[in-house]
Fold this protein.
Amino acid sequence: MASRAENLARIARAATPTLLGVFGAFMLAAPLRLFEGAVATPLIPLVVVYFWSLYSPGHLPAASIFFIGLLQDLLSGGPLGLWPAVYLAVQYVAISQQSYFLGRETHVVWMGFAVAAASVSIILWLFMSLMSATLLPLGGLVFQMLTTIAVYPLFAVAFGNLHRRVIIEV
Amino acid sequence: MDVLGQDKREVFGLRTNSHTGTLLFSLVALILLLSSLYAAEASVFEKARETAMETASPILKLFSGPIGWIHDRVGDVGDYFRVLEQNKALREENAALRQWEEEARSLRAVISALEELDAYEAPPTIKPINAFVIGEANEAYAHSMIVNAGAKAGAAVGYAAVDERGMIGRLVSVSNNASRILLLNDIQSRIPVFVEGSFVEGLLVGRSTSNPTIAITMLANGARIEPGQRVVTSGAGGVLPRGLTVGVVSKVTDKEAVVELAADYARTRLVRIISYEFPQIDEIEQGAESQSTSVPDQSAVERSDDQPAPQAQAAAATAPPSPDEGD
């Protein structure tokens, strides 16, 4: 029985990054309205995807990222497949730049996240503008991305501790 | 943080350099995206959205409960610092409301007089459904809310949703116990409206701006629109009832009038869904026939004459803007 409990614990640990991404997607669909709606809800799934794609892609497989993105699309009522494509692109770039970022100082990785968030914003804006056939306002999107970039260090520290102490059982 | 990826580098990751899964799922995502764009209204995708909304609604309720509690507490703290100015504002509002009360009393007298007239036809009864906001899309280009009332409560696609300030949007997706409201500032939102004071009919088009301002296109007599005029739903098209408060004209340019919405989406908690059945011509004719066969009475004939009038009005209301569209 001990081995079964151990197995369950191992599965729970392995699923933690995915569950965090799902939690982030639900946070995006909750009427959070930080500071009476003055601050946009940060894109926590983007942080989750970037962080684990960089440090341990094996713990957040492409299937999980696809699911997280699809959930976000379904909850927001937007075109299906948009966020999975965006998150998988982030994962692809993060994995390919892994050798550069691994072992670097925290603020370098943070800058990397800022670049990733900016690229995602440009892709989203271009795509949505093409879809609606008008140049959409950039303000809200930029504000949301800046909020996400600003809170990234907090989540990175929390995720880092979680990863070291819980997920990969040192 | 520095430990991450330095010492554990060989332990990390089962297949660190495998792009295969990413590429495969990216392909699936892109195919899904293209097909959902080509068939946005396809029943499969709509069904998927409804199922997801239905499944997610209990979880969203769990999320929104504590959020609402915190908002109430935080709101209270904020109020303490604004007591004086709020008091002043309330006094002014009270004075203004007293004037409105007088006007409402006189209007009530007029209405009761009208109701006594035999010719007066009461508008179709509006049945409101109360619902709480349990979710909303917090993305830059998606403006919608999820509420905890669905088909079981009587909601249906196309119904209007209002809060205590004014109209907030229209139902676009309804499952058994939850519904999605497309907000008026979403890029896909189109609502037929009427500008009071200038008697202009128009289409309210969402612009996805962060502060909810919306432009009226297709102005019939745009020159007559002035800032400060009230905007209400026009009832054209027969889906929304006429006269729901939408907002106030804040700016007028050559081609459009920007509307400041009455609703404040950051404060919307309780929503009323307005189920409104517009009188249908064919139903009335059938009703008139059956009535005339059973009771050959004068009233049935009268009704069949009177009832189509709102329909004709609505049709006439939509017609004038179209010639100006080409200008």
